[in-house]
Amino acid sequence: MPNAKITKRLVDGLADATTDEFYWDTDVTGFGVRVRASGGSSYVVRYRAGFGRGAPTRRITLGAVGKLTPDEARRIAKTKLAEIAAGADPAAERAKQRAEMTVSELCDTYMTAAEAGEIIGKGGTAKKASTLYSDRGRIERHIKPLIGSRKISAVTKLDIERMMRDVAAGKTAADVKTKKQGRAIVTGGKGAAAKSVNLIGAIFSFAIEHKLTEANPATGVKRYAENRGERFLSSDELERLGAAIRDAETLGIEWTPDPSKQVKHAPRPENRRTIISPYAAAALRLLILTGCRLSEILHLEWAHVDFERGLLFLPTSKTGRKTVVLNAPALAILTGLPRLGRYVIASDSAGAKDEKPRADLSRPWRLVSRAAGLEGVRLHDLRHTHASIGAAAGLGLPIIGKLLGHSQTTTTARYAHLADDPLRRASDVIGSRIAAAMGDTAFEKEAEIVDIGVRRRPAN
What is the pTM of this model? Predict the structure, then answer.
């Protein structure tokens, strides 16, 4: 192990070695160059981790020869040796960092605990399957791609803010395949960005609780305001929506080919119509007539429907077990639907041994809402409309909250600015007003499907 002042001339003249060799600087004790038998060389610092001759000798690498000049490496070595003299042990710290979890590994640990029911939500219960599905999607599509490779102790508030901006800007946008829906269009946006920050904050809180780290980098991050504004349909909009649903399930709604795609045999303009299934139409009507959540309607089983008493008994919902009082129009829709399988809103697998519920209503809703001039209106806004009509009719907020299955009165209070009768009367008042506004006076009659020989594009 020769000793010499480490200069540019010395490092440029280093020859390949058959075994690892070290050259130690004569000016700075502990500073040297390592020449590897495998090729390449790097600047190193050697020191004792502790005091006395019995303290173990350790070594850290400062950087590769060629990327650092000898003078730059010597300055770094002096800084490290000063830290060591003050009690630091950089080699041990690096070993700890190498063994430390990455954000991806932390997310996986969190989800394992959540799926085992060990993560308790704000309502005091374990996370529901639908929430776990959403969490998994945000982790795999936003969090992991942006900060998943980082060690958890290295993540800073600036990293979280950068992640939020990137999600909002659509940098994680993708068209992905999923087992549940078959396909998911990930668009990002401010809402997704805010939810991703909330989730990573919860994950780091879990890490602190289990002594995996000491700080939460999401603390203090100013989130984008989540778009939770309630959109209530007016009487005119309800009328247009009712007409659009009737057209969609009978004559069909016109469509035009995508001008950016070349189609060899496009149908004639008069034959370009899309007809939705009666089950998709029924689902859209049930959403607004019952105020149920989308998953509650799509996962509704015939076994949950009590026709005699006019009730839905939902074994699971966002707030647990739930009973839904059916108004006359909603009950008429259910009475008129053919039973093809286990689920009320039949899917492509209806009647099969491994039948699954319908995944979503995205395509029929886009078709109907566009035809009704309701672009930007979400399916969840139908639930808000149901509640707003009840509030405007003078029904008490406690009654509306019970109809919607709210677990907290503060959730229903959002409708207070729009405005004790039994639940049945409240449900019938809302249902009859919606039915009248939509122009559907006889839901009990199945819509007559008119075959006009048009080219149909399924929008199931």
Answer: 0.50
Is pLDDT above 70 for 148? yes
C-alpha span between 354 and 439 (Å, rounded): 38
Summarize pLDDT for 56-73 with one digit per residue, the tens. Answer: 888 888 988 888 999 999
H helices then E strands: how many in the chain?
A: 17, 12
Taking alpha carbons only, the member of 449, 459, 43 closest to residue 247 is 449
Q: Could you give the dihedral angle defined by the CA atoms of residues 155, 156, 157 and 162, in that order, rounded to the nearest 10 degrees?
A: -70
CB atoms within 10 A of CB 325: 21
Q: Residue 22 carries which DSSP code?
A: E
What does the pLDDT look like over 335-369, one tens digit per residue? 999 999 999 999 989 888 889 999 889 889 999 99
Helices (H), 250-393: 278-290, 294-298, 328-336, 362-371, 380-392
Helix (H, G, I), strand (E, B) or coil at 174: strand
Domains and CATH numbers, the chain: 8-98 (3.30.160.390), 103-209 (no CATH), 235-456 (1.10.443.10)
Query: Three-state DSSP class for 244?
Result: helix
376: left (phi over 0), alpha (psi -120 to 50) or beta: left
Contact 8, 58 (CB under 8 A): no
| Two tokens, residue 101 | 């979890």
Q: What is the DSSP string of 437-450?
A: HHT-S-TTSPPPPP
